[in-house]
Design a protein that fits this description.
Elements lengths: L3 E6 L1 H4 L5 H16 L5 E5 L2 E5 L5 H8 L5 E10 L3 H17 L5 E9 L8 H13 L6 E3 L6 E7 L4 E4 L3 E2 L11 E5 L5 H11 L3 E8 L6 H18 L1 E8 L1 H10 L5 H19 L5 E2 L12 H8 L6 E2 L7 H11 L2 H4 L6 H4 L11 H8 L4 H10 L2 E6 L3
Parallel strand pairs: 5-6, 5-7, 10-11, 10-13, 11-12, 13-14
Antiparallel strand pairs: 1-3, 1-4, 2-3, 4-8, 4-9, 7-8, 12-15
The structure holds adenosine-5'-triphosphate and magnesium ion.
Length: 394
């Protein structure tokens, strides 16, 4: 019965003036990428991005498209000729289909819109006729409520056909991936950083990821976990390139030469330096972390100040003002939570000092680092970096 999916775009795409075309182009490309094997056609039609199913399975198409950033919602539509009798018959089918998934009685309303002014009936009249027809053939399963209906049948009269739908399937909103440029996400195996990466993607960023491992102190399963998180993120954006940086020697040197209460601060300062280098190499214009203000010792303002000092590339912290419960609920929704809570150790937890400094001073951190040959350590870490590409299909 359904031939087409119509999309409603994120509000910001709609108001982006001249850039709108570019945003829509990027969106359509991203949509095509997820449905390319289904034989559907994605195109602009009547001021909207539409998907013609061409016989493809509706549920499968919806399940793939409903995660594409930039889409606010999707509706499957049934099409008819511009003939009021045909419209009424199709309306009944669409409503009956919607009723199958609901407990009755359901409150109901018809909302008609006439884009084609040559159609001989005005919108309110179309609504009335269609409503009356549907009500008289659904055996009391519907109750009219024009203010707050549970079920709304939308009838759109276009140039050469009418569109009918009852269903609004929410999408993730945001902006199409690729429209904001590229960022480098510091991806640990925890709950927060994957969520931060997801939120950056949702604002249109292409996300590459960097992970610091301390193999063999951290296990292969810990690495697997990070790979899995990168894979899940790639499922949202299409692709994630993950750079696994050899951090073992750096950890060892810090432990040998630096005061214990400053080890986390110094470790983070070196992570930032390495991420900064890689970002330049990979043409990323910002770093993204999962830091949230005050969450742990290394995320106090003093700590962020002291750690941030080694770089002047912008550091985006999408979670900075969020509570852990909010972050966890996003993690569950985007499918990273179950993987994040697996118990495998992280390079930070292994070397965790008993009393990390919660208000580390910049000058003390600088002095504590003096014994390290940071340049050589960074060069070695980058030389031993291994890169993997994850795509939606992998
Ligand atoms: P997460 O849940 O993301 O691990 P967290 O609450 O454990 O965060 P921290 O361990 O203090 O917080 O890490 C703060 C941020 O630093 C992380 O969100 C992440 O962006 C980055 N980070 C920490 N450890 C690593 C690592 N091993 N590799 C890459 N980035 C890391
Ligand atoms: Mg962590």
């Amino acid at each position: 019965m359904y031939s087409t999916l119509i999309t409603r775009l994120g509000g910001e795409i709609a108001i982006k003036g001249k850039n709108r075309v570019q945003f829509e182009k990027a969106l359509m490309e991203n949509m095509r990428a997820v449905v390319k094997d289904l034989g559907v056609k994605v195109a602009r039609e009547g001021g909207r991005v539409e998907v013609r199913l061409n016989g493809a399975d509706l549920d499968e198409t919806v399940s793939r498209l409903k995660n594409v950033f930039g889409i606010n919602s999707l509706s499957p539509v049934a099409e008819t000729e511009l003939d009021i009798e045909k419209i009424k018959e199709t309306a009944l089918l669409v409503v009956q289909d919607a009723l199958e998934k609901r407990n009755t009685p359901v409150t109901f309303k018809v909302e008609a819109r006439r884009a084609n002014k040559r159609f001989p009936m005005e919108s309110p009249q179309i609504s009335q006729e269609v409503g009356r027809y549907v009500l008289s053939r659904t055996e009391g399963k519907l109750k009219v409520d024009v203010h707050n209906p549970e079920l709304k049948l939308m009838v759109e009269v276009r140039e050469s056909k009418a569109y009918l739908t009852c269903d609004v399937i929410p999408g993730p909103g945001g902006l199409p991936v690729g429209t904001a440029g590229k960022v480098l996400l510091l991806l640990s195996g925890g709950i927060d950083s994957p969520v931060a990466g997801y939120l950056a993607m949702r604002r249109g960023a292409n996300v590459e990821a960097i992970h610091f491992h301390s193999f063999p102190f951290t296990s292969e399963r810990a690495q697997e976990k990070v790979n899995d998180l990168a894979k899940i993120l790639a499922g949202h954006s299409g692709r994630v390139r993950l750079h696994n940086v050899y951090f073992t020697e750096i950890q060892r040197q810090i432990r040998m030469h630096c005061p214990e209460e400053y080890s986390i601060t110094i470790m983070r300062r070196i992570m930032m330096r390495i991420a900064d280098r890689l970002a330049h190499e990979r043409k990323c214009l910002a770093l993204v972390t999962g830091e949230s203000l005050g969450q742990v010792a290394s995320q106090t303002l003093e700590s962020m100040y002291t750690i941030n000092n080694v770089t002047n590339i912008p550091i985006l912290r999408p979670l900075v003002a969020m509570d852990k419960v909010d972050i966890m609920s996003i993690a569950r929704r985007i499918g990273t939570y179950e993987t994040s809570i697996l118990p495998y150790e992280d390079c930070c937890t292994i070397f965790l000092p008993k009393n990390p400094k919660t208000r580390p001073k910049l000058h003390e951190a600088m002095r504590a680092e003096e014994k390290l040959d940071i340049e050589a350590l960074i060069t070695e870490a980058l030389e031993k970096t291994e890169t993997v590409l994850f795509t939606r299909e992998s």
